Structure formats: C-alpha cells, structure tokens
Sequence to fold (72 residues):
Amino acid sequence: MRNIYRRARIKTAKRDTSANALTRESLSKPEEEESDFERRKRLQKEVLASVRRFRASDRLNREAIHDRNALR
Fold:
C-alpha cells in the first residue's frame, strides 16, 4: 500500500497536479479501454495469424537428422 501511495505522489508531481485530479482523470476514462492482458492477447493472435502454417512434413526425417553431413 505504501508503494502505491509513493508511486501516486511521484506521478502527481510529474504531472504537476493533485491526487484528486489524478483520481478523477483515471475514473473518467472510458471502460472500453484495452487492458494490458487484452492487448497482449490481441498481439498474440496477430502474430500467430501472421505465421505460416506449420507442417510436420517440412521437417527433416529421422535419417536426415542423424546424418552427420546434413548438419554441416
């Protein structure tokens, strides 16, 4: 709790405002604002959609993996 209070005091000092004004501002933000979790989930979906489909047939077979010349 003490850490939250300290961070709030630092934030208000940087913005040259009061704790009440900071609280009013945070409460007046629209609730539709994307949370950090939602943002990360959306980004994960975007990355996964951009990755080409993985096919096991594209990988080396067992003999090719163990062939010493294939790794050089």
Notes: The first helix runs from residue 2 to 15.
